[in-house]
Amino acid sequence: MQTHRAKRVEITIEAVMQSRLTDALTKAGVTGYTVLPVLGGAGKSGAWSRSGQVSRASGMVQVVCIIKPERLDDLLDGAFAVVERHIGVVSVSDCDVLRAERF
Amino acid sequence: MEQLLSLAAENLISPIILCFVLGVAAALARSDLSIPEAVAKGLSIYLLFAIGFKGGVSVAAHGIDATLGLALLAGVVLSAVLPLIAFALLRLMTQMNRLDAAAVAAHYGSISIVTFVAATSVLESSGVGYEGFMVAVAAAMEAPAILSALWLVAKGGSADGNKGMDSALLREIMLNGSIVLLVGSFVIGWATGEDGLAEISSFIVSPFKGVLCLFLLDMGLVAGRGLREGSKILRPAVLAFGVLMPLIGSAIGLGFAMALGLSSGGIALMMVLSASASYIAVPAAMRVALPEANPSLYLTLSLGVTFPFNLTLGIPLYVAVSQAVTGG
């Protein structure tokens, strides 16, 4: 089957920053993304779990988007402006999609 | 003193407090007991709706007067001023840097609605009446403290890139779910009055304490986990601040409430609001506005120290003092 090269960007960020990030992605021309809840993990600040968090202040979400390679720089510029001062992990990987016109 | 001890003992063996203690003990013992996130959210929505609605009904029954407006103004002033006192105290008592001190201070100007709800439950159990509009005062005290903290940071000429308050943050604070639900249900209760309450009393009156028990069990679990994980940062001076600041806040709240001529219950609630520290709205705002501040510091202090203190010892103390000063 015919596939097309694309970029998959995963941004793990604090829940309170979610709307700011998705707004920035929209401004950067991203038309589709998926927001996933993050159950817990460990990093520079130590281990944490979603269980028992009393407010959104401590929660994390992951925003995943798949875009055409030529639009990656705009997306990363927009995302970086949001995550620069905050906890967040941005990763980019290559992927293949079946319907290129959707991304 | 005898009355204070009696009220404290009565409060300590109430199901509400014992559920909270169970939660703290379970968390400290590393039990896997947990309340599902969605259930906890549902319980908090129920409590906010019930307390807001009942407050509105009370205002409908007693009418409004100038005291309501003055109480709202007092709440705003208290919320704006208490962080300045907390900030000065933190800088004096601890070696906390300016940014962390400002972030912690914001929590102590804002309020804990769960502490407020627990206090109303204690008052109702003791048959002490209070002004229904105190719910609106609670809502008014959520946000000004955040502005004061950001002003403290800006005044210090922070070199850490603080952007302070923007319109999006202001909107999030003013329209956060808790405030919208609390104020909205207050207005509905006000508009529908006693008839409205009669229609839904089997839902919002009878189950109230049971729901509060479960919610406080969850809060105990959260506070216990916070204490366990935050124990490393709780140096004696920081710990002392977590107990001293609510006492200072409640004393200032007492002064404001007496100047307004509130009832015994109203004075107690104003003291509770001034003594409590936020752990929902302000932490979220601080993560957005001051991400460099240490969240474990302010969350552990407000949720792990001040909240349990207020719930177990503070509320009976404030109720006893309010009754002593009003002779009731």
Describe the structure.
The complex is a heterodimer of chains A (103) and B (328). Chain A has 103 residues and is α+β, with helices and mostly antiparallel strands. Helices cover 21% and strands 40% of the residues of chain A. Chain A contains 2 helices and 6 strands. Chain A has a 4-stranded antiparallel β-sheet, with helices on one face. The longest helix of chain A is centred in the C-terminal third of the chain and has 12 residues, at 72-83. The model of chain A has no long low-confidence stretch (mean pLDDT 86). Chain B has helices spanning 2-12, 15-28, 37-62, 66-93, 98-109, 113-125, 134-140, 144-155, 167-174, 177-204, 208-230, 236-260, 264-275, 281-289, 295-326. The longest helix of chain B is centred in the C-terminal third of the chain and has 32 residues, at 295-326.
Tell me the β content of chain A.
35-45%
Give Rg of chain A in angstroms: 15 Å
Distance between the termini of chain A: 18 Å
Sheet/helix structural class of chain B = mainly alpha
**Side-by-side strand order of the widest sheet of chain A:** 2-5-1-6
The major sheet of chain B is characterized as: none
| Model regions low in confidence, pLDDT < 50 over at least 5 residues of chain B | none
Summarize the structure.
The complex is a heterodimer of chains A (103) and B (328). With 103 residues, chain A is an alpha+beta fold.
